[in-house]
Amino acid sequence: MPIYHTAAFELGDFDRCLRLFSYAEEGHSYVRFSNPTSSVLERRISALEGGSSALAMASGMAAISNTFLNLACQGDEIVAVKTLYGGSITLLSSVLPQYGITGRFVEEPSDPAAFEALINNKTRAIYIESLGNPGMNIGLVQ
User: Fold this and answer.
1) How far apart are CA 4 and CA 38, in angstroms?
2) How confident is the model over 48-89, as pLDDT tens digits?
3) What is the DSSP string of 47-67?
4) C-alpha to C-alpha distance for 25 and 103, rounded to whole angstroms
5) What would the mean pLDDT of 11-23 be, rounded to a whole number?
């Protein structure tokens, strides 16, 4: 599969442009929406994992942010371990609160009761890294 180094694609006529931008026709119109390189990657990852689809992101932080912003909204909470990558800590403690989403941190990640104590009806996700960064600790162990 070639890598397409482009930002825009040949759209044909105006009517096709309208169909592409309204998602009435499958195809690529602009790389912020989709591109052939990412589409092939997404289809292959989905097939490998037995999923119905996949979504490729430019970075791990983009994937984490996208996930949190799709799971939670103002007033919701995300429970997380304190042994996360620094960018994840910053997202949960400084960025998401600006959107009204609270990050609550588990002090002892190897204790299931520590998680249970923070879960409530506002909890939308429990976030761990299976190998914490930078300590390489193993997440919740039973």
Assistant:
1) 9
2) 999 999 999 888 899 999 999 999 999 999 999 888 888 999
3) HHHT-S-----SSHHHHHHHH
4) 40
5) 88
User: Of 18, 34, 56, which closes a domain?
Assistant: 56
141 belongs to a structural domain = no
Between the CA atoms of 17, 22, 23 and 27, what dihedral angle is there, to the nearest 10 degrees? 10
According to DSSP, the β-strands at 77-81 and 123-127 are: parallel
Residue among 119, 81, 75, 117 nearest 96 (CA): 75
CA count, 13 A, side-chain hemisphere, 30: 8
User: In terms of residue numbers, what domain contains 16?
Assistant: 1-56
User: What is the DSSP-derived secondary structure letter of residue 92?
Assistant: I
- Residue 139 inside a domain? The answer is no
Specify the number of domains making up the chain. Answer: 2
Task: Say if residue 32 is in the same domain as residue 69.
Answer: no
Type of residue numbered 105: F
Contact 118, 111 (CB under 8 A): no
pTM greater than the 0.85 cutoff: no
